[in-house]
Amino acid sequence: MFQEMFAGDERSHQINGMIAQVFLGLTQIFLAAILFYRLYVLGQPDAQLNDLRLLLAFSIFGYIAARLFFGGILPELSWKPALIAYAALAGLITVVCLLIYGWPAPADWAVTWLPALLGPAIIVGLYALVAYLGKRRVEREISD
After folding, report:
1. DSSP character for 49?
2. DSSP assignments along the chain, one per residue
3. Where are the domains of the chain?
4. Contact at 8 Å (CB) between 128 and 76?
5. pLDDT tens for residues 22-35?
6. Which among 72, 53, 47 is positioned nearest to 131, based on CA atoms?
7. φ, ψ (nearest 5 deg) of residue 126
8. Would you say the pTM of this structure is higher than 0.70?
9. pLDDT for 29
10. Of 31, 36, 97, 138, which is the most exposed, with the fewest CB atoms less than 10 Å away?
């Protein structure tokens, strides 16, 4: 019974995938808007928003990782683009934090500079790893 309900041709699978992708994107946008509203309009403390932040981060990064691994469609990074992406992300985060909070005291560098420099390195590194594994997976499927 369930197989008949979900059986379909390529066109219906493609439409279902597009609809799922659009609504996932809208859900992520609305969740981010709710976070900004609660943080900046309602003035809720950061600690009350951690659950929504984790959910949004898991949704966004999980989607990107799944697209990289299962689709193998996003580009695999070589060293030069990876360093450029890292420098752009770290620079953007650093500039925004400096504009908002000012120059940090030396004692606070572990909670100010370290996340701004280490976070983008982790993101770019994970992107490169999952893109490589996805490409390898697709190449193995093609060769088999």
Report:
1. G
2. -HHHHH---HHHHHHHHHHHHHHHHHHHHHHHHHHHIIIIIS---GGGGHHHHHHHHHHHHHHHHHIIIII--SPPP-HHHHHHHHHHHHHHHHHHHHHHH-SPPGGGHHHHHHHHHHHHHHHHHHHHHHHHHHHHHHHHHHH-
3. 1-71, 75-144
4. yes
5. 898 899 899 999 99
6. 72
7. -65, -40
8. no
9. 92
10. 36
